[in-house]
Amino acid sequence: MARSTTGRSRFKIQRSLGVELPGLGKAGALERRPYGPGQHGNKRKKISDFAVRMKEKQKLRYHYGLREGQLVNYVKKAKKDKSQAWMDSLLITLERRLVNVVFRLNWAPSMLAAYQMVSHGHVLVNGKKISVAGYTVQKNDVITLTERGYASLNFQQAKATPRLPSVPACYTMDEKSAKLVDLPLPSDIPFEYAGQLVTEYYWKVKP
Predict the structure, then answer these.
(1) Is residue 1 part of a domain?
(2) For 39, 59, 108, 142, which has the most beta carbons within 10 A of its beta carbon?
(3) Taking the model in full, what pTM does it have?
(4) What is the dihedral sign for C-alpha 5, 7, 149, 65?
């Protein structure tokens, strides 16, 4: 998990990228100040093509709570998958990280909170406790929480005020469990991004 950020810096990150990233758990960043941080944030600035591509890549990194090296490793693995466009493969894999699954199920108010729940041993996959945030959930896996997980402040907060409006259709759910019945789709990503720009940013990365 990437280094945690304060509420203030999470607002700055979203303003600088020009998009709200649900994984950061801080809504309203663009409503409060719909331009970049700093005293010159509301002035038009010329931005290079490289910077444009990097901003798109940063959306993925910050939303999913990854270090750059982790994201590059996921890119390398995705490029080895010849069955589909590597960008689609990358997004499907990122969506199936256990920490993201907990967040997407609205069981945690942010990706950081989901990470805490996983690392503290509150998450079960097929009845087995998994404490690795990057564990890849497979089709037909059943995800539940321990009793401590259901009683946790993170879970209670997420249920009271869900960060996301809905759960992706690739999951079936009942009150206390969820099952991944199909692979997520790139269109399930809960924020706007330009996949082609991310592809261009990482074009030199070899599988």
Answers:
(1) no
(2) 108
(3) 0.87
(4) negative
Residue 3: predicted pLDDT: 47
Rg (CA), the chain: 17
- Report the share of the chain in percent with pLDDT over 90: 78
Specify if 207 maps to a domain: no
CB 115 within 8 A of CB 65: yes
The answer as to whether 206 is a domain residue is: no
Q: Torsions phi, psi of 31, nearest 5?
A: -70, -40
Closest to 51 measured CA to CA, from 89, 95, 24, 18: 18
**Range of 81's domain?**
7-93+193-201
Burial class (CB in 10 A: 0-12, 13-18, 19+), 45: exposed
* Shared domain check, 139 and 64: no
Does 149 reside within a domain?
yes
Question: Per residue in 36-49, pLDDT tens?
Answer: 545 544 555 677 99
Q: Distance between CA atoms of 173 and 33, rounded to whole angstroms? A: 37
| CA–CA distance, 88 with 125 (Å, rounded to integer) | 24
